[in-house]
Amino acid sequence: MQHIVKNLSEYLLTFLVILTLNFVLPRVMPGDPFLFLSSDIGEEIARFTPAQEAAYRQQYGLHRPWPQQYGIYLLRLLRGDLGYSIYYNQEVMAILLARLPWTLLLVLSAVFLSTIFGTLLGSLSAAFRDRAPDRIIYPLMITMSEIPPFLLGLVLLFVLAASMHLFPLSGAMTHFARHENIWSTLTDIAHHATLPVLTLTLVRTGAMYLLARNAMTTVLTRDYIRTARAKGLGPARILARHSLRNAMIPVITRVFLSLGGLVGSAILVENVFAYPGLGRLMRESVMVHDYPMIQGIFLMVTLFVLLANGLADLAYRRLDPRIAEKRGGRS
Amino acid sequence: MNKLLDILFVVLLFCVAGCDDNQANQANQAEKYDESTAKSPAVVDVIHLEGGDWGYPTPFAHYPRGPGGFKMALIFDSLLERDEKGLIPWLATAYSIEDKGLTYRFRIRPGVYWQDGTILTPEDVAFSLQYANRYGATWSYVHHALDTITVENDSVVVRLREPQAVMLDSIGRTRIIPKHIWEKVDNPKEFTTPDAIIGCGPYTLSAYSKEHGTYRFTAFDNYWGPKPRVKTIEFVPVSEPILAYENHELDMVGVPPDVLPRFQEIKSNRIIRNPAFWGYRLLFNMGRVKVLQDVRIRRATALGIDRQELVDKIARGAAIPGRLSILPPDHVMAAHDLADLPLDPVQARALLAEVGNVPAMELLCSGQEVRIAELLRQRLGEVGIDLSIKTVDGKSRDARVRGRDYQLAIIGHGGWGGDAGYLSTHLLGDVFDQNAAPSASGIDGFEAPELAALLSQQATEIDADKRRESLHQIQHLAIELVPEIPLFYTAGYTAYRPATYDGWMNMYDHHSMQHSKLSYLERSGAAAKR
Prior knowledge:
- The complex is a heterodimer of chains A (331) and B (530).
- In chain A, 76% of the residues lie in helices and 0% in strands.
- Chain A is mostly helical.
- The longest helix of chain A is centred in the middle third of the chain and has 39 residues, at 182-220.
- Chain B has 530 residues and is an alpha+beta fold.
- Chain B folds into three domains: 1-27 and 40-53 and 203-274 and 494-530, Periplasmic binding protein-like II (D-Maltodextrin-Binding Protein, domain 2), CATH 3.40.190; 77-200, Periplasmic binding protein-like II (D-Maltodextrin-Binding Protein, domain 2, 3-Layer(aba) Sandwich); 278-490, Roll (Dipeptide-binding Protein, domain 3).
- The radius of gyration of chain B is 25 Å and the shape is globular.
- At the A-B interface, helix 2, helix 3, helix 5, helix 6 and helix 7 of A face helix 1, helix 6 and helix 12 of B.
């Protein structure tokens, strides 16, 4: 019980520190939301008179001193109010909730697929280490993991979408289409999500493969595996039943820990495919210094990362009971 | 070894992509047909244009940056509209300017319906101007500039606080909103219900998705004016506009100069050069660097810069060299009979020799202009002006320019096609308005009484010919005094398929055809071609 309280306290402290940084960092950037609202696109110039600007500052509470703004921000957070976007003219929460599912679709699909394929290929490589399958798969995976996601996305876009017309060029669904039933809608969404998910999956599979390969290699040298071979068990059974579970511990931990970082990769991929997720929203919000929006997005990412870390902790203890026996122990 | 494999793999992927791209080109070639036999339909069912979320299209809720205002203008009409040559009557059938520019009288068109079926009255127009005067639309033209607004029979009479030549355009562009809906709204920016998009324009908003960035506009059956030639306009987001256009997902696309030859090969495309209304200029901070107040140094700088080289190397040919008269050649008020300063390094050195020692100076720019800055440093170094380059992010550069924290600076912005009144802003002021757009950045420490008097005069001159004459003299003086140096005006290209739709046109002061309301309407009645 003590270690649970200790863990929760540490997470809470981390959360508060990040929250404070989240509040301060946008405000120390040069300029403010009204500077960035000025428009020079084409010939229409948006200018705010001093009176307009003063009215908007008051409306958004930006005329108050920072400590006061921070206190109000924390109080609103306790009520679940993330504020009102200066640039997008809508409640921040509403915007985030509309975009979040699309990012989750990409991120979770990529995590699932890259974990499956990375683990399978890593296990295969480990089982045939230094032989033909390993010599083919290993350099291929190394190469794939080094390619920047946006570059890979562009190549897939050009080849599979623009040239071969197998997939749509952009978007999350066919716009203005009327679907007869839910399956038609889901098929349309899956069709549009294929290239972004494929991009993120290919980029991540290399890392998962290396981890699985190394973990499996270590496990395969253990005495109990030698015993299993001596008993006459087949290679497939040894891999699936005696090796995989032990080798999966670092892999699963890595899965949770990398969830937060995947959002960063998703930013680039969403921009390549014009996918309506948080990534594009994050980029736009930072460009225009929309403080409430920036704070809302980074708060959501923070919660996501902390949750992922917490789940990694729990998963690790569950998979390896020896960890749970160490009082106060954390990975 | 791993790095070599990476490089080889990427090269291989690009080769594959290139091969497929060639095949796609060949497929396109097979589709081409002779433009002269292609017929454009009189009415088109649907047109697809590049989307993106630019806000809910009311005059107060669309985003200030981007084309949100032009989408809003499809729903909301204004008193005047813009065609290829200038302003034309629209919701106002006639107007007059009285009391030496203090009073504007607009006769309101009868028989105009709101999209909810009610009829538009002069009271709606008066209310719209009062509302815009009070709250300020996103693209605000009349905020706090109007003194009184009254209704006299079928006319609306507007009295200004002081005469301004630009106010006809400003009042004319203000969007007319239904009084019976907006009179209850005291927070227009957050008014985003379906009632908020009831206008009297040629289109209604039939679908909008913020997260997907899609809009669908449908022709308004009871529109008072010229019939829409396009029944439905759909804005859809795309990742690569060029690819989307080639895949027939878009019906119009901006063409970068690098791919222009590929587009020109396909006869079904019509390529149009956009008016050059976006440009870069070099600012002198004469308030901080006193030597720059010597006109010989500024003239030497102009003589030492090869503006054609900037066009060739920076814009890759898709630009027009800057003119020291400031107004770009496509501007309706541009003077075309004035001799500009040519590239003449010899004369530049001679002028600098007269001055004597010219201190080294810092040239401020953003990351986007660093190549321009490098070329300027090279060329000006050859004539004897030593520059060091300071690069910051764009908005920091804008803030420093407005804070007078620079010696020389390069800024880039749009608005060069707008009312020539911006010359006052360029040359005399609004330096200290911290939240102004970069186009409003003026120069500091510039003393030129004759020029200042002319600029002041043209700002209140309502006679078009007299104003044109004043502007001509201003442009002449700008060449003589070189208060700033326009470097080049970007001139992009647009491609579309006439067989799909050929109604595109440019407003006289704007670069984008798809932003023009008249592009979607029959050119008859109020919109007849002049």
